[in-house]
Amino acid sequence: MALKQxxxxxxxxxxxxxxxxxxxxxxxxxxxxxGSRQQATPQYNLKGEGEAYRFISGFMGACGVDSWDEIVxxxxxxxxxxxxxxIVALEPLPTGKRGKRFALPADWDDWDQV
Length: 114
What we know:
With 114 residues, this protein is mainly β. It has one domain: CATH 2.40.50. It has 1 helix and 7 strands. Strands 1, 2, 3, 4, 5, 6 and 7 form a 7-stranded antiparallel sheet that branches. The chain is globular and about 35 Å long.
């Protein structure tokens, strides 16, 4: 059985969280609006300086922004895994803001940024 390709949807960032959650763990995620529903990326534990930098810069790079507070309001493509229904990658629109595709890690050992 062939694996299905991720579904590509147009979405707008309506919330961008970067901070410490209740247990003091630095975390980060984005919430998207597809028009008919909303979905968030998984909330990632930014456990080390290298991981935190790569993750934050990946989000900002995909949004084509220079500052975290510019992320909200960005319209972009979101790729959703058809099996798990989780967000697996972000991509800027071909017009508008500069940016590059960002693949979200399934876990830190499988980190891949394209």
